[in-house]
Structures are given as structure tokens and as C-alpha cells.
Amino acid sequence: MEYSVQLTFREQWLDERLRFSDFKGRLKYLTLTDASRVWMPDLFFSNEKEGHFHNIIMPNVYIRIFPNGFVLYSIRISLTLSCPMNLKLYPLDRQVCSLRMASYGWTTDDLVFLWKEGDPVQVVKNLHLPRFTLEKFYTDYCNSKTNTGEYSCLKVDLLFKREFSYYLIQIYIPCCMLVIVSWVSFWLDQSAVPARVSLGVTTLLTMATQTSGINASLPPVSYTKAIDIWTGVCLTFVFGALLEFALVNYASRSDMHSDNIEKKYPPSETEQSTSMDLPSDQVEPDNSSNFAMTGYDGPLQHSLQKPLVRQPEDTMSMDRMEHCELHMQPRKKNCCRSWLSKFPTRSKRIDVISRIFFPIVFAFFNLAYWSAYLFRKEEQDE
């Protein structure tokens, strides 16, 4: 990870060998354009990857020598500097990029760099960056110790805030729209197989293409970024909508198979016993029920007047039956089951449940995602 900067670098030091007379104030300073004519500190940019000087139309460099021996060196440079970034909160992150200047060969016993008192770093007004905002900067010292000695070092820490509006428009809103479009298949008829399959596959491929485009613009890292969680969950929802149709199609074919079996093999009629109210003259005193055939007066009538249902020894008394009936409570109606019973097929019930389940889960995910990352972003600011 790197960043590019164009800067005007100035440094000043005292070289008593270069003192001269100012001719009673008439000579303010001498100007040179060849830096090899005077002694210069061996400063270098320690985190530089590449850079160049500007030579159009003339070399953008000058050296001013003052009568008291002070030397001012100024040059215009373009640099590409390394900037290690922590992308765990990307694109809700802030990054600190440093500009380090150190002595290459002179130790602190011979050369020490100091920041100029009062506004050592000046930034152009109305600085606009495409995807970042420069919030503030800090100046500090970063002396380094090696086997050959201690070397003086200066650094500038630049705090950049990533502009979230770009990513909101280009990534988050389109991903939400793709997820919502994938839910349209829940309202399509279960028999519209080409429409539902093409809708699910198209949204899945579009989501996968957008995810690969996002990752292509970022360096490969070993940890999970905030944008990875977002795109991964959105891709899961789109894939889940496609799997939901596979389940609906299987349930629909299963329902059709059951209907065909019922039409081919209708259920046989079974005899059901019914309770009959008998007249009092056909009930014996011992509470046993006798069935008699009326309208026929013959020997068969007396043979049929025998107990056919139950005998006194295995019957339950009326008092005990009333006691059992008091303890039997009617079942409580389940609202969800009674509502789902309006839809006769399992495939239709799956679609109806998905219309409610998918949006609710996605809403909960949004609530958890934005709460977690915006809260961590505030902690990072502090």
C-alpha cells in the first residue's frame, strides 16, 4: 500500500565557512542553482519507494546563502511513499500515513534534525482528494538506533479519513438492491420455473461479479474486512433465495405426486358407528341396550332382542363418563398454523414464509452490522 505526494522541501542550516559581507545591508543573500557547490546534509526519505525532481522549464531548486552563514535549500519533489494500512474497517476506516526523513551517514553526534518553530508543515488550502479527506497532521521525531550508531529522524503523520459516500453509492446500495430483487421470486408463481431460475442465477452472478471487482481494487490481506462481511452476507442471501426455489420446486412436485396417487387410488368407504337414541321401552332396567326390529312380529324378533353393543360388566357408568368429559379441554388454536392453513400446498407455504423470513433477517443483519462498525469507528476516532 502506498500513496503519492508532491511537495516543496526546505531545510536550513548554519555553515560559518560561508559568511560574507552584506555591504551595509545592500546584499540580502546569494542564490545558487548547483547544490554540489556547498556542503549539504545527507537527508533521505526512509519510506520512499520512488521519486523524481522537477526540471521543467528549469530545475525547480535553489540555494540561498545569507551573510551570517545560514543556508536555505529548497527543491520540488514528487514521491511515492509506502503506507501500511489496516483495512479491517474498510471502507469505514481512517489511515495514518507517514513521511520520514532521516540522516543516512551522519550520527546524532555530528548532525541533528530539528523542526522549525511555528508551523513547520504547510498544506495547501482547499485540498481535495478523490476518496480521502486530510483531517490533520502531526510532527514528531523518530530517531533510529542501529549497530553503527544513532541517526536523527523527523516524521510527519498524515491522518486521512476515507470518504464513505462513494462506497455507499457504488457498493452498499447496489448490493441491497440485488438482494431485494432476488426476493421477487417469492412472489412469482411456483410453476414459472424459467422466470424464477433466471432471476436467481442472474442476481447471483451479478453479486459475485461485484464482489470480485471490489476485491480486485484492494491488496490481498489475511484478515476479514468490513466490506467482505457485507458482500459475503449479501451473496448468501441471494444464494439462499435460489435454494429456496429449489425447495419450493421439490415440494410442488411432491404435492403433485400425492394428488395423482389419491386420484388413481381413491380411499375406500369405511363403515362408521353412530350413536342411536333408543326409546325407553327398549332399554332394560340393567342399563343394557337391546336393539329390536320393529314392524315384524315373529320368532326372529325375539332372537334379535339381545345385547349387541356392550354388556353391563364392561360398561362405564354415566357418572364416570360425565367426570371424564369435564376434564377434556378444547385445543387452543395456533394463529400461525391457522394462517398457514389458508394455503393448501407446502410449496405455497414455503414461499409465504420466505417473504417474511428473508426481509426480517436482512434487517437484523443491517442493524447489527451498522451498529458494530459505526461504534468501532467512533472508538478509532477517540
Automatic annotation (TrEMBL):
Subcellular location: Postsynaptic cell membrane
Stretches the record annotates as Disordered: 259-291
Membrane disposition: Multi-pass membrane protein
Keywords associated with the record: Cell membrane, Chloride, Chloride channel, Disulfide bond, Ion channel, Ion transport, Ligand-gated ion channel, Membrane, Postsynaptic cell membrane, Receptor, Signal, Synapse, Transmembrane, Transmembrane helix, Transport
GO cellular component, one term: postsynaptic membrane
Molecular functions per Gene Ontology: extracellularly glutamate-gated chloride channel activity; transmembrane signaling receptor activity
Annotated Neurotransmitter-gated ion-channel ligand-binding domain residues: 1-162
Listed transmembrane segments: 164-188, 229-248, 356-375
Ranges of residues in domain Neurotransmitter-gated ion-channel transmembrane: 171-317
Family of the protein in this entry: Belongs to the ligand-gated ion channel (TC 1.A.9) family. Glutamate-gated chloride channel (TC 1.A.9.4) subfamily.
Name of the protein in its database record: Glutamate-gated chloride channel isoform X8
Species annotation: Bombus vosnesenskii
Higher taxonomy: Eukaryota, Metazoa, Ecdysozoa, Arthropoda, Hexapoda
Name of the gene this protein is made from: LOC117243437
